[in-house]
Fold this protein.
Amino acid sequence: MNKGLIGLLLALPLTAVAKPVVMSYDGFYDRMEVVSEGEYQYARVGFYLKTFEGAKECALSEGKIMTEKQTYPLTYNEHGQLFLPYDKQLDTHKAVVVATPKDAGGCQLSMQIEAKMPQQGITAAQLYQVHEEFEELLVDLSGFFVGTLMSFLLPEQQGIQLHFKDAVPLDIPSNWQCTQMRCKVKTDESWQDDTRKVLVEGAKLQRITPWIAK
């Protein structure tokens, strides 16, 4: 080979290639099954891909769900959230989920208990119910042994966290612990039957997660 061509090839920068993340579908199915059997109105389990470094959103370039005989498109959004069908056949057929990040560096799966709320005004009673559903789902996902016999191993839920799409609204209660885009909220027993008092506009929320003691 020409020496000049060899030198040119050596001088070319090496481009890191993003490696696909391959995950077994049954892990997703098992958790969706717990939510389905519990008949939760708001609580669910969210599936996200996060970067290894910094646990930031992992943007995807493509994704698919594969069995031995068929391939289906994987639905996801710009935040690295995966939207998987609750499908017994995919579980039976040992499907795998393949997600390809846009950038190299590595991504990993993160599962989060969360709630998707209506877009209109969310009442005190609804937030109280979310808190109650989170506590129940934490126990259900932990299984009988930990949830019943070793409940002291469960994480302690202090309340709920409101994640806003933009900055925290100016009209939120003064006793909420807020940063730029998130508020930690201790639920109150008096909220349980208060269906009139609107505490936050659902359209401003991205999601709600449990507030867990460290």
